Amino acid sequence: MRDLSGIVKAYDIRGVVGEQLDADIVRDFGAAFARLVGGPAVVIGHDMRDSSPGLASAFAEGVTGQGVDVVSIGLASTDMLYFASGRLNLPGAMFTASHNPAKYNGIKLCRAGAAPVGQDTGLAAIREGAEQGVPAADGVTPGSVSERDMLVEYAAYLRELVDLSGSRPLKVVVDAGNGMGGHTVPSVFAGLPIEVVPMYFELDGNFPNHEANPLDPKNVVDLQAKVVEVGADAGLAFDGDADRCFVIDERGEPVSPSTITALVAVRELVKEPGGTIIHNLITSKGVPEIVAEHGGKPVRTRVGHSFIKEQMAATGAIFGGEHSAHYYFRDFWRADTGMLAALHVLAALGEQDRPLSELTSEYGRYAASGEINSTVDDQAGRMTAVQAAFAGRDGVTVDELDGLTVNLPDGSWFNLRPSNTEPLLRLNVEAADADAVAALRDEVLALVRS
């Protein structure tokens, strides 16, 4: 029996094509998924990687072999696949490895209405089925495959949710990183009062210009320079499957995803006063402060899209944001869409006259370290050592909702979490200013790396 534990992650399937992931394995994943979700159909999309069309086709064979139809939407961003799942009310499969290098590919799965599929919500069962192999169903008429282009509907729906008709003209540089943003941005921005300066819109799964991972600062250097060079009002950087969006202000400076979360939350609270906003526990503490100040109800969750989506469903939340630039909207089937968040930012910018740096300064209150990874042999031992060093101090509080979160009496805090898939501890620190961040960061890292 196969062992697929190395490629079935907490929220998706991801591995090296030809070594960990091939057509036979993917065909069995498709069959196992079809058995889990049943009929009448599954919607499938794929990114621009060389391996994606073939793998998507193999998955479709597995699905149809179980008597379930397939609706193929072809080239798509991940949030476009979620749109299709929501609009058609069908379970979905997206073939992408997001920001990973070209040799990787993977599958993001959802139930009808873009509901998440993770380890506890079906992914473990799908893995078990694929490990054993899933033959075509006996006595069942194979399903059919139809094609449907959802791009125009997707773009129109996003423009319905955010009204930019009254915006002042804006110049925006967009770095698609040779990923799916190059496919979706032209349609979404069509007819808006926005001059788009495109960078790396050519679809190329080999990523010839830079990795499609804007979380790494080196991958937004070109965008930062171009924004300043052309005098743009803002810059947007999308990852490979274009479900995450990072924002650059007119000075070429990155805008924290926590700041974007707070800005979009305030806009959503205007539409629904008193609404609930979800934020994960390593988002800036400025987010719940601002949400509360605007009459909203902040709810803190663990890191990870399945936890965000579960809490949104449980609380009826209108919006949720993560430090990793994933943004979730109730109006988008509680799924994440960086494109919709980008439209909110541009609408907020275009309806007033200040530059983006001044606008966003209202929503960014604290200094932060960003996520710092440390390779350790004994994750549990290092976590225990850090907790012991801080827990006995006056005014210090500790919680273990997700890893270890330590709040200090001066208002600073840090979170230390183990990776699910690698021998890493991930540290995030926030404090009043950069010096305080550096001091606390160094103190914790000394314990982690000792």
From TrEMBL:
Going by the entry's taxonomy, the superkingdom of the source organism is recorded as Bacteria
- Span of domain Alpha-D-phosphohexomutase C-terminal: 371-446
UniProt entry keywords in alphabetical sequence: Isomerase, Magnesium, Metal-binding, Phosphoprotein
Ranges for domain Alpha-D-phosphohexomutase alpha/beta/alpha = 8-128, 153-252, 261-363
Keyword Ribonucleoprotein in record: no
Q: Which NCBIfam families does this one have? A: PRK09542.1
Determine if Ubl conjugation is one of this entry's keywords.
Answer: no
As for family, the record states:
Belongs to the phosphohexose mutase family.
Which co-factor is required? Mg(2+)
Q: Could you identify this protein by its name?
A: Phosphomannomutase/phosphoglucomutase
Q: Name one GO biological process term.
A: carbohydrate metabolic process
What's an example of a GO molecular-function annotation for this chain? Answer: metal ion binding
Q: What's the source species for this entry? A: Solihabitans fulvus
A Pfam family per the record = PGM_PMM_IV
